[in-house]
Design brief:
394 residues, alpha/beta, Rossmann fold, GMP Synthetase, Chain A, domain 3, 5-stranded antiparallel β-sheet, 23 strands
């Protein structure tokens, strides 16, 4: 039996987000699927679709990040979301109370609310309407109240938030009060991970997307209800109980991206490239369309970003992109923000400090300091806007 068509659900910012909890509980019961959107935006138009194609038990049609073009709506059933919440709590050590520290109309924030439904504990909400601050996070962390049935404390962050928190003693103390801190939404520099762990933060790096009900690989290992392999083209393919049943009103895109094997396991082929390390852990190398071809050599932006983060302490955030170049085909360019905006940083300085650490073709030919890295979602850099900003300032 096909599910009812999803209806738009306005997700407020700030504490009022808790007003949508009853609607989410009803959606998880399979009676009234929802299409979440930010309450500050106009209501979205529900894509035209054949109701007969909707999966039984549909709960949420969640927007994708739109990194490959216009956003799509991934169809997630109640079972997929419940299995995801169960598996997350299993991996983290048991049910707990959650602090919502990101917008809830995106899958990462929405999952915090859904895990709270599974735990039976109302989440604590960090009010982000005035922006993220260490002081506000610390205060919100102090309001998280576990229960006997859900005794642990959890939160989920994007890398930029984690970076700001570990730079402040109050932030570090707040982070250490949690039994688990999930970090995802964008690539997290290894230097930041190592620093947080050295400070005693119980950190889990998550990998996933709207099409997989959020994170389905933790610290390189798939959740108990998930599977992963890398195909012959090095694309990461994710499978298991949390995979969506396609896109709302997009049958051709659904057929291209989703498959079901003879054992009825659903699979989603991502646009990410990856490999397994010597310990069998999944390593994400970056998006296939982000690879920079410079002078006939392929450069992975993530490798350059990691080197810059590790060896240039004055840089707060960095995103590496390729721009057209008449001599090299594409030029490696870095957009950065500085911990001290009053400082200056030149391309020559960056190249000299990274020489011998990166191969010469990977050394940035252009470094541009921005006031902030453009975003297209919680923690996700908007590479199109970044390319435009770098090109304009060249």
């Amino acid at each position: 039996m096909a599910a009812p068509s999803p209806r738009p659900l306005a997700i407020p910012a700030g504490p009022e987000v808790l007003d949508v909890m009853p609607a989410l509980e009803t959606a998880l019961a399979g009676r009234a699927p929802v299409l979440p959107y930010a309450a500050a935006d106009p209501p979205p138009t529900v894509p035209s679709h054949d109701p007969a194609t909707l999966p039984e038990g549909l709960a949420v049609a969640i927007g994708t990040s739109g990194s490959t073009g216009r956003p799509k709506r991934a169809l997630l059933t109640a079972d997929a979301l419940e299995r995801s919440a169960w598996a997350t709590h299993q991996v983290l050590g048991g049910s707990g109370a959650w602090l919502l520290a990101m917008p809830a109309h995106h899958i990462a924030g929405l999952q915090v609310l859904l895990r709270s439904v599974a735990s039976g504990v109302m989440p604590t909400v960090l009010d982000l309407r005035g922006g993220f601050s260490v002081e506000a996070f610390t205060a919100a962390a102090g309001r998280v109240r576990p229960t006997r049935a859900a005794p642990r404390r959890y939160t989920a962050l994007v890398p930029t938030q984690l970076s700001r928190l570990v730079d402040d003693p109050l932030g570090v103390a707040a982070l250490r009060s949690f039994d688990g801190v999930l970090v995802g939404g964008a690539a997290t520099p290894r230097a930041l991970v190592e620093r947080a762990q050295a400070l005693g933060v119980v950190l889990s790096l998550t990998y996933g997307m709207s099409e997989t009900a959020g994170g389905c690989v933790y610290d390189g290992v798939p959740l108990p209800v998930s599977r992963v392999h890398v195909d012959n083209d090095r694309h990461v393919v994710l499978g298991g109980d949390t995979v969506a049943h396609g896109y709302l009103g997009e049958p051709e895109l659904s057929r291209d991206a989703f498959t079901t094997d003879p054992d009825q396991v659903r699979w989603f082929r991502t646009d990410d490239l990856g490999h397994f390390d010597d310990d069998g852990l999944l390593v994400i190398d970056g998006r296939a369309d982000d690879v920079i071809n410079t002078g006939g050599l392929k450069v992975n932006p993530g490798v350059v970003e990691d080197a810059i983060s590790r060896h240039l302490d004055e840089i707060l955030d960095v995103v590496v992109v390729g721009l057209p170049d008449p001599e090299w085909g594409e030029a490696v360019c870095a957009a950065v923000t500085l911990a001290d905006p009053a400082r200056t940083l030149t391309t020559r300085d960056v190249r000299e400090r990274l020489r011998g650490i990166l191969p010469d073709p990977a050394l940035p030919r252009r470094v541009v300091v921005l006031d902030a890295i453009p975003q297209r979602g919680p923690g996700k850099p908007d590479r199109t806007a970044i390319r435009r900003s770098v090109g304009e300032r060249a």
